[in-house]
Write a structure and sequence with these properties.
There is one protein chain. Helix content is 37%, strand content 19%. With 272 residues, the protein is an alpha/beta fold. It folds into 2 domains: 134 residues, Rossmann fold, CATH 3.40.50; 119 residues, NAD(P)-binding Rossmann-like Domain (Rossmann fold, 3-Layer(aba) Sandwich), CATH 3.40.50. The strands form 2 sheets. Strands 2-1-3-5-6-4 form a 6-stranded mixed beta sheet, sandwiched between helices. 45% of the residues are buried. Bound molecules: NADP nicotinamide-adenine-dinucleotide phosphate. The site of NADP nicotinamide-adenine-dinucleotide phosphate has 25 residues, from helix 5 and helix 8.
Amino acid sequence: MLRMLGILGDPVGHSLSPFLHGEVIRRSKLPFLYAAFHVRADELPQAIAGARALGFRGLNVTVPHKQAVIPLLDWISDEAQAIGAVNTIVFAEGRSFGYNTDCDGFLAGLDEQGGDLQGKRVLILGAGGAARAVVRAAQKAGAAQIYIHNRTLARARELADVFGVGVLAELRDVPAHDVVINATTVGMHPRVQESPLPPALFRAGVFYADLVYSPLQTAFLRHARAAGAATADGLGMLIHQGLAAMKLWADCDLPAGLPGELRALLQARVDG
Ligand SMILES: NC(=O)c1ccc[n+]([C@@H]2O[C@H](COP(=O)([O-])OP(=O)(O)OC[C@H]3O[C@@H](n4cnc5c(N)ncnc54)[C@H](OP(=O)(O)O)[C@@H]3O)[C@@H](O)[C@H]2O)c1
């Protein structure tokens, strides 16, 4: 019997998850159907209860529900607890289990593109939901030093307090670093010419990773390459957080070639 999967968000129409998971299901011959569901904040409890009652196998959860969904679940993983957000729910044996696959998805996407945080001095730009997963990833990977910079300084301080990392108040005081990660929305379509760092601050020898995947080649990554630096785009994280969620639902390994196949498909879709 086919079982339902889906993504809850508001808005959700732009999400690439139905396309991504549709391809994973088809290529891995899994017994699932995946759809997007537009759910407003005041209807989240009914949506979770309804999915459970209808026998859904699981859900992805996106903005603005990743935090609000936590008290609605029976159990959440240590990772989701540490990040303070759930992006994947599994329904099993009448219970609901919450996970966060963004942290491991980010690390896998980075690794695939030649990036590494172990022993590195890491600067993270942004203090929103995605930045939380990236700070956790940097800690998990064993970064030697972690600083957060954010437009709204109070949010950077709040996040830094939660994770016990440093705050960079002004970009002109950028400390020595090996990796810079853009976890802001700056550079996203349609404001594609904007970069969270001015061109003069990019250096060869530093690794630059962007979470933004629309467009794939952001101004941030273009400035980095112009300075002679290595880069990773946001598609790796998108693919690997999705594959990690599918592994939880399917409870089996997926074909080894999937990440590469998905990259080619999604690249054409994002850039097309
Ligand atoms: N690749 C993936 O799989 C993946 C996964 C998750 C997210 N993302 C991407 O990551 C990005 C952040 O997502 P999110 O969920 O963390 O968003 P969010 O919670 O809304 O946070 C947005 C962040 O961007 C900053 N920001 C927004 N406009 C800015 C501007 N004009 N100048 C400087 N900073 C600005 C905000 O700073 P303030 O605090 O000052 O407002 C905040 O730190 C998005 O582009 C999203 O698509 C990618």
